[in-house]
């Protein structure tokens, strides 16, 4: 039975819409997080990765706007507790690592990959739910974002493996006198 106020037909659609609003919140907040991560990164490759993903994140927001438009709904963010926790962890690793070290870059990569993995899980699930609801156009948009999240995750791994992890393993521990 359709709810005439919202145009929603099922509990699945209610859940889908909630997840969309949570991802919208996450993407809009990720813009500031990525800008900070870029500024706190030490290596040029990692700074460039964060800059590129910042631009992609703005595109992800635009795609979600398009999804909401196709659903004839306003694009309203809803707090995503999962991403908020991951963002908080990211701020913490900045506070707990020394600026200009490979250790900080390692911590930033791991923090960023936690976000990417959360987003990949959500976008993959949202795309599948859209297909279940015969919303192939929505699924295609969500899958575009999913692929970009996967590419960013792979790039972060490559950056780590190309030397940052090794460099961090050679940084001495500061021993208090």
How many strands, which pairing sense, and closed or not: the largest β-sheet?
A: none
The best one-word shape is: elongated
Helix/strand-derived category reads: mainly alpha
Terminal CA distance reads 72 Å
Order of helices and strands: HHHHH
Number of strands: 0
The amount of beta strand, in percent, is under 5%
Arithmetic mean of pLDDT = 93
CATH topology: Ferritin
CATH superfamily: Ferritin, core subunit, four-helix bundle
- Rg over CA atoms, rounded to whole Å, is 19 Å
> CATH architecture, please?
Up-down Bundle
Q: How many structural units, i.e. domains?
A: 1
Please, how many helices?
Answer: 5
Unreliable runs, pLDDT <50, ≥5 residues? 1-6
* Range of helix content: over 70%
Structure keywords:
177 residues, single chain, disordered N terminus, 5 helices, Ferritin, mainly alpha, YciE/YciF family protein
How would you describe the overall organization of this protein?
This protein has helices at about 10-40, 45-70, 80-95, 100-130, 135-170. With about 180 residues, it is mainly α. The chain has one domain (about 10-165): Up-down Bundle (Ferritin). Residues about 1-5 have low confidence and may be disordered. It comes from Filimonas zeae. InterPro entries: DUF892_YciF-like, Ferritin-like, Ferritin-like_SF, YciF. This is YciE/YciF family protein.
Summarize the SSE layout with pairings.
Blueprint: H1 11-40, H2 44-70, H3 81-96, H4 102-132, H5 136-170
Helix pairs in contact: 1-2, 1-3, 1-4, 2-5, 3-4, 4-5
A few lines on this structure:
The chain has about 180 residues and is mainly α.
């Amino acid at each position: 039975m359709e709810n005439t106020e919202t145009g929603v037909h099922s509990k699945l659609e209610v859940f889908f819409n909630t997840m969309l609003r949570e991802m919208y919140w996450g993407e809009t907040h990720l813009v500031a997080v990525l800008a900070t991560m870029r500024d706190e990164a030490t290596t040029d490759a990692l700074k460039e990765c964060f800059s590129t993903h910042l631009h992609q994140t703005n595109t992800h927001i635009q795609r979600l706007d398009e999804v909401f438009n196709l659903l004839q709904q306003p694009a309203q963010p809803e707090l995503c507790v999962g991403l908020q926790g991951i963002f908080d962890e990211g701020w913490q690793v900045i506070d707990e690592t020394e600026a200009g070290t490979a250790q900080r870059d390692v911590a930033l990569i791991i923090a960023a990959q936690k976000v990417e993995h959360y987003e990949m899980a959500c976008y993959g699930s949202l795309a599948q739910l859209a297909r279940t609801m015969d919303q192939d156009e929505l699924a295609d948009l969500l899958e575009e974002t999913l692929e970009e999240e996967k590419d960013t995750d792979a790039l972060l791994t490559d950056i780590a493996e190309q030397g940052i992890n090794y460099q961090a393993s050679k940084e001495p521990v500061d021993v208090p006198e």
